[in-house]
Amino acid sequence: MSYSIVELLFILTLKETRMNLFKRGVMMLATKQLKEEHAAVKFMLKVLDNICARISKGEEVDPNHLTRITEFLIVFVDKCHHAKEEEILFPQLEKMGVINKGGPIGTLLEEHNIGRNYIKGLREAVERYSAKDYSATEDLLKNTQGYKNLLTQHIEEEDTNIFVLADQLINEEMQEKLAEEFEKIEVERIGTGKHEEFHELLHELEHTYLS
Ligand SMILES: [Fe+2]
Ligand SMILES: [Fe+2]
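Above: the input record for the complex with fe (ii) ion. Below: its predicted structure, written as tokens.
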């Protein structure tokens, strides 16, 4: 029996999702998953720090790395991680009485938006830098530093306050349901094969900038 490419992709996506669920033991708490993702974000912030130091010293950095890092920040961090918080965890917390506007959720949402502006600026600067327009260096450094400072304190706030509160308010059964919703976002927004591509990128960047 032969399949069309669309059917094959669909089958592979389902397979990958089930494998992920199995690997994660299905029982993984939603907040634990988000904390693990923070570790990957913090790794990328460390790489960006090293890249900024090199650029500041006048060294040239591989534009291909900058392009792929920007894609990671857009797809993995914003479209996937921030979406899980904005569309699933925060609304659940709101239902349980945590304040949005003028409260902790409102502040975190505002920070996600500020982050998006930095990424927009970074993407434009990377495009110019890749075209050998080195006047883009200043914008590249400004947006990267701004993003790094913002995300560092944002992650700290979530890990030490909002996720701790979530663990107190949301029982394990509900956390598992939220984690299942997270899986849907992963498949819809990241897609098949992207995880492997990002893993490869992390290894390559570690070797180039952190060892
Ligand atoms: Fe967040
Ligand atoms: Fe987060």
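Notes for the reader.
Helices lie at 5-23, 30-56, 63-95, 104-130, 137-169, 172-190, 194-210.
The pocket of fe (ii) ion (ligand 1) is lined by residues 82, 85, 108, 112, 154, 158 (CB under 6 Å).
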